[in-house]
Amino acid sequence: GAGVSQSPSNKVTEKGKDVELRCDPISGHTALYWYRQSLGQGLEFLIYFQGNSAPDKSGLPSDRFSAERTGGSVSTLTIQRTQQEDSAVYLCASSGTWGETQYFGPGTRLLVL
Amino acid sequence: QKEVEQNSGPLSVPEGAIASLNCTYSDRVSQSFFWYRQYSGKSPELIMSIYSNGDKEDGRFTAQLNKASQYVSLLIRDSQPSDSATYLCAASLNNYGQNFVFGPGTRLSVLP
After folding, report:
1. Which terminal residue of chain B has fewer beta carbons within 10 Å of its beta carbon, N or C?
2. Cβ contact A102–B100 (<8 Å)
3. Separation in Å, CA of A101 to nearest CA in chain B
4. How far A18 CA lies from chain B's nearest CA (Å)?
5. Is the pLDDT of residue B47 over 70?
């Protein structure tokens, strides 16, 4: 079946602009994760959704970052007033439920000029 | 102590040799462990998962879990240049929420 998809694959924006990144998880997967990966660095956890439960936002670096998941499926990560340090690859992953194997999307490469 | 720790490397091995990648974990971690491979510029992809003490083999890959010593390792036999990548150790936590943690990864270079 189809894997995790993300859009756009690349995004170039100017400092101060808002951006929206989209993630379509694998059908039927109830858990969805967002990570950030800067060049040459490890995975930085951002936020986690499990079904209709309240998300775990403990990894969001500032209040400029927010995410929602509509209908328990598609998720959008929004970064307001982007800064140059927000430049990174944003990865989405989904799993059948919490603690199970995660499957990653191709990522969105964000460049803030 | 971080939940999952790995030597960042780089680890260099000659083609055809056995590459040994190690990962240690803390008491907060549950008993589910995963090895991911990440090629430069690509997303992580699952290689193996291991839940029980002992060895688990899949082709050229063998995962080893030692709960008493709190480590998990990945052996790659007959290493190929195409195995050159960063290998991420991951584990599930004993709590809801951020319940999946990744180590920083070990960069492996297989020299032809």
Report:
1. C
2. yes
3. 7
4. 24
5. yes
